[in-house]
């Protein structure tokens, strides 16, 4: 360039590249970079001011490009958040509708329970009155017997006969009183067991147990009504004998059976003998030949069919059968009707519970990532298990994504509480983490940014903990930051567990200087991030849970240690065994292959 002025624009560089291209010389990225460096060096010597302007311009152009990329990513996140918010709103509306229906039904349940309680108390009063009458009658008979003997008014044989009749009457009254008290106690026991049953499966098991113990039934069956298809669907197995003529898994209401008769008539069906069953089924329009074949091949000799009714609406039917003839008294019939009423309430409550639970799980899973990224040099695995006794959605979540520099960010968090509020907070924090990690990925900076988000968006009563790890694929070199979260677990290839000993700091939103520290995953090792639901519950404290976690890892076979998926299954199955899971459990494993 011989001291001549270097042009301020890039036409000179473009001309040289064009000349090389016309001469057939390849223009590689290395050649282009060399020419650019050469031009900038010449510009720095000839025109230092223009060189500084050019450097600032290039830096500004790079910053603008990065800003545009961040803006596009933020827009994509905003669009994703909008879609998830719309889904959240739709599910929230459905949940509110279900909750309103539940509130309405709960009021009706309370009224029906209060009515049953009044009837039960009335029955107790009648029992007490009967006891009082029996006692009065016994006292009267004793006084009459004493007076007659004192006066000598009746012969001895008449006196003995009267005494025998009085004893027999007293025995019958005592038996009736005992039977009434036994039925009352059984109904109270059934009500208590049904109150503890949450799902349809649990309700069905209680009904089968009641049929076996309280009624001495040889078989018990439960069927629920599918009103759209006008069929009864059996939800218990083994309750109907497998013989020709017996109903199948689905029983059309047009088919004559003990259960369909009970549903169609809204009244109990009692068949004390095969002849009684045949007569009733034929009168209901059944095929006499098929009914005779069923009775001849079955070992059943008495049947009871009870409709499950809630506010006059049929929900299904119960079927109890006996291998011997049964005499069903009027008192037994009253007891069976009361039993069916209690079972109907439990079935309706369990149906609503399962519907709300499915809605809650759908909402929570819609806020979790569909899949984990596939990255060479890392193996990722996750497990999420919703709390079994909670209808409402929880605040546990996990996430993993690739940063711009190729490293992988992994996070497990827990928003305390239940319901739509916790789920919405979970969605906001998850999206905020991704946006902050794009612009300033160090874990301490991300947590500091989340603290600012909490100050402006989340309420003071909201408590959120999380573990945030950034790791280099292949080498496993990483950086970790904790916000009040349980310590990560590092598992060696030999199955030796090691808990992170760094201070967990405070939950998000607390005024504290966030710290990060080195956390490496050597080749062949696996790191496990988890929520507190894995190690802590009502019967086990955090320290005891962490100790048990290490003990379980030490017992794991080597083939389990070498597979993140098998390791997470092993941990959840072993640690949760024997405990009632009352909280969500979330695990995320990061393994660096050997």
Say how many strands there are. 16
Q: Kindly report how far apart the N and C termini lie.
A: 55 Å
Measured as a percent range, the helix fraction is 40-55%
Q: What's the shape?
A: elongated
The residue-averaged pLDDT reads: 81
* Strand line-up in the sheet with most strands: 3-2-1-6-5-4
Description:
The chain is built from 14 helices and 16 strands. 54% of the residues lie in helices and 16% in strands. The protein is of the alpha+beta class. A hairpin with a 5-residue loop joins β12 and β13. The protein has helices at 11-22, 29-46, 48-151, 156-196, 200-213, 258-265, 274-283, 288-297, 330-366, 420-439, 443-456, 542-555, 558-561, 564-576, and strands at residues 219-226, 231-234, 250-252, 269-271, 302-310, 313-322, 379-385, 394-402, 408-418, 464-471, 478-483, 489-491, 497-499, 517-518, 526-530, 585-591. It has a 6-stranded antiparallel β-sheet with strand order 3-2-1-6-5-4, sandwiched between helices.
């Amino acid at each position: 360039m011989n001291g001549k002025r270097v042009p301020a624009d890039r036409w000179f560089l473009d001309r040289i590249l064009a000349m090389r291209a016309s001469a057939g010389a390849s223009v590689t990225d290395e050649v282009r970079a060399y020419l650019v460096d050469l031009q900038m060096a010449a510009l720095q010597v000839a025109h230092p001011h223009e060189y500084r302007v050019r450097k600032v311009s290039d830096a500004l152009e790079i910053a603008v490009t990065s800003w545009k990329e961040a803006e596009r990513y933020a827009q994509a996140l905003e669009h994703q958040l909008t879609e998830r918010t719309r889904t959240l709103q739709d599910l929230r509306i459905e949940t509110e509708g279900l909750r309103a229906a539940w509130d309405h039904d709960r009021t009706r349940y309370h009224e029906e329970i209060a009515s049953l309680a009044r009837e039960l108390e009335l029955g107790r009063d009648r029992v007490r009155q009967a006891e009082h009458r029996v006692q009065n009658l016994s006292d009267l008979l004793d006084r009459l017997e004493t007076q007659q003997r004192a006066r000598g008014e009746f012969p001895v044989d008449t006196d003995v006969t009267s005494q025998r009749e009085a004893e027999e009457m007293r025995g019958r009254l005592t038996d009736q009183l005992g039977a009434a008290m036994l039925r009352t106690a059984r109904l109270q026991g059934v009500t208590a067991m049904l109150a503890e049953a949450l799902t349809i499966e649990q309700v069905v098991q209680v009904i089968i147990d009641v049929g076996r113990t309280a009624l001495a039934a040889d078989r018990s069956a439960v069927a629920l009504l599918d009103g759209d298809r006008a069929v009864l669907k059996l939800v218990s197995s083994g309750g109907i004998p497998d013989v020709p003529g017996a109903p199948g898994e689905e029983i059309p209401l047009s088919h004559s059976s003990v259960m369909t008769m009970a549903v169609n008539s809204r009244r109990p069906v009692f068949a004390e003998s095969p002849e009684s069953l045949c007569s009733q089924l034929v009168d209901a329009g059944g095929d006499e030949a098929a009914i005779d074949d069923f009775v001849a091949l079955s070992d059943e000799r008495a049947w009871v069919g009870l409709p499950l009714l809630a506010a006059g609406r049929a929900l299904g039917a119960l079927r109890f059968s006996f291998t011997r003839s049964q005499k069903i008294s009027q008192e037994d019939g009253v007891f069976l009707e009361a039993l069916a009423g209690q079972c109907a309430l439990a079935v309706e409550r369990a149906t609503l519970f399962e519907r709300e639970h499915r809605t809650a799980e759908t909402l929570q899973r819609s806020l979790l990532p569909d899949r984990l990224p596939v990255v060479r040099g890392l193996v990722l695995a996750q497990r999420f298990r919703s709390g079994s006794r909670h209808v409402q959605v929880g605040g546990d979540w996990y996430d993993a994504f690739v940063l711009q520099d190729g490293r992988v960010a992994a996070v497990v968090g827990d928003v305390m509480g239940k319901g739509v509020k916790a789920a919405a907070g979970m969605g906001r924090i998850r999206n905020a983490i991704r946006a902050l990690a794009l612009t300033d990925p160090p874990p301490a900076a991300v947590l500091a940014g989340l603290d600012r988000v909490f100050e402006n968006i989340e309420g003071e009563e909201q408590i959120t903990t999380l573990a945030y790890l950034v790791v280099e694929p292949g080498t496993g070199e990483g950086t970790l930051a904790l916000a009040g979260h349980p310590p990560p677990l590092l598992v060696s290839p030999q199955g030796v567990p090691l808990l992170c000993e760094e201070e967990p700091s405070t939950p998000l939103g607390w005024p504290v200087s966030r710290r990060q520290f080195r956390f490496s995953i050597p080749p062949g090792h696996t790191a496990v991030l988890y929520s507190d639901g894995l190690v802590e519950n009502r019967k086990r404290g955090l320290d005891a849970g962490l100790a048990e976690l290490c003990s379980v890892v030490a017992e794991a076979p080597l083939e389990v240690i070498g597979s993140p998926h098998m390791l997470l299954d092993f941990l959840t199955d072993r640690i949760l065994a024997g405990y009632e899971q009352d909280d969500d459990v979330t695990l995320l494993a990061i393994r660096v292959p050997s």
